[in-house]
Amino acid sequence: PQMDALHLVFKAKTVQEKLHHLTEACMTIPSHAGEASVSADDLLGTLVLCLLNTEPKNLLGEARFLDNVATVLYPEASLDHRGYCITTFVCAADYLRTMESEDFDSLVKGVSSLFEQ
Length: 117
Description:
The protein is mainly alpha-helical. It has helices at about 1-10, 15-30, 40-55, 60-75, 80-100, 100-115.
């Protein structure tokens, strides 16, 4: 479910749709893991793995767009779960951007094997 929602973040045309799908993806991670909630570290790690599997074309651009535009259009979002999802999404994008190529290749291979099972 979170994979479908993440794909829709990148296909959505409006900020509202992007924010909705991102929030949906982040909120389904705990239930997919069989938990009522997950820690920030687990959410970030899972989101990184899901983003790797999603293979977005403009991850950093989407992350910056949501971070800059969504919080202006929906200022209340920065104080609730939507802001938390945006921040986690931006952190995941930044983490992937700063990875060394060997680490990235290794992580991609590991993730691919996880999703093939």
